[in-house]
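Why should sequence recovery work at all? Because a backbone constrains its sequence more than one might expect. Tight turns favour small or flexible residues, buried strands favour hydrophobic ones, and helices have their own preferences. The token representation captures these environments compactly. In the example below, the structure is given first.
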């Protein structure tokens, strides 16, 4: 367990890459719910987690992003929250083999609070259920990721902290506005930073979205208004439809890694990748981080 993220107070620490698109790339989804694979094909999930550890990730997530009652009830599986969440944490811990920390992933419900699709109480109950299940498996921390509506993130953050003593990282997805640095619901990095502090998050950041160019600006805006550690996991650019019908992402490992020094300069504490990034992207980022450290040492 990470007590309060002070273990990571200095330097930039490497996260993992994408899970969903990596499952798709390997032909493992076929229209299925990713979390179902925790039971149906745990070896495949373990292999993806291990591939990131071998690429140099210091922290890996869990295949539990959609393990909440609202997502699972669309597949007649709302009663499987605990089993799938616990299995997801256990798989990543096994893959980490003590070489990487394991953080439990919790994503949004797909419901929009401000439109009254469900009540705030219903959302809170769902997040408490998922967080309780993840906490039971004892990961090192919990990350709330890919949230687009600040109100839902606030409910999730409060719910997790009500049932778990684990540190919680609060992340949103930015892709709208003139320069891509607001959420589709109009929330800004500054509003996220304020909420993260007010509701007791241990770190704050962004994942998914557009690509590393936009998320560099997001990181800079966060760094200007918060002293919390900053967590950044950009996509490998916007998805594109290939000639064969398969989805591709334009930012390759080398280009992705070229942003590493700039993210370090912006004060990012945790850096990884989201949709479209692969173990090759993470390995390239690991090399770039190592080279940056060596260059910094020569100039001091």
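From this structural description, the recovered sequence reads:
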């Amino acid at each position: 367990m990470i007590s309060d993220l002070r273990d990571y107070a200095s330097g930039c620490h490497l996260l993992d890459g994408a899970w969903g698109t990596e499952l798709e790339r390997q032909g493992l989804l076929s229209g299925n719910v990713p979390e179902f694979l925790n039971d149906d094909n745990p070896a495949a999930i373990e292999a993806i987690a291990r591939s990131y550890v071998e690429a140099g990730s210091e922290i890996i997530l869990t295949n539990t992003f959609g393990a909440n009652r609202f997502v699972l009830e669309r597949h007649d599986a709302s009663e499987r929250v605990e089993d799938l969440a616990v299995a997801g944490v256990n798989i990543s811990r096994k893959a980490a083999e003590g070489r990487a920390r394991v953080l439990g992933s919790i994503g949004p419900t797909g419901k929009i609070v401000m439109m009254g699709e469900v009540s705030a109480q219903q959302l809170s109950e769902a997040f408490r259920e998922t967080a309780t299940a993840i906490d039971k498996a004892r990961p090192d921390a919990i990350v709330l990721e890919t949230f687009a509506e600040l109100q839902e993130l606030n409910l999730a953050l409060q719910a997790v902290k009500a049932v778990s003593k684990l540190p919680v990282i609060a992340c949103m997805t930015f892709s709208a506005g003139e320069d891509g640095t607001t959420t589709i619901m109009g929330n800004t990095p500054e509003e996220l930073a304020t909420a993260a502090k007010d509701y007791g998050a241990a770190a704050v950041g962004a994942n998914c979205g557009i690509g590393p160019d936009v998320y560099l600006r997001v990181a800079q805006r966060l760094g200007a208004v918060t002293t919390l550690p900053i967590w950044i996991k950009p996509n490998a650019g916007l998805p594109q439809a290939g000639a064969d019908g398969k989805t591709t992402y334009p930012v390759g490992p080398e280009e992705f890694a070229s942003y590493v020094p700039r993210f370090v300069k912006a004060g990012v504490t945790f850096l990884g990748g989201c949709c479209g990034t692969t173990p090759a992207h993470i390995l390239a980022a690991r090399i770039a981080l190592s080279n940056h450290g060596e260059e910094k040492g020569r100039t001091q």
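A few observations help interpret the result. The CA atoms of residues 102 and 139 lie 5 Å apart.
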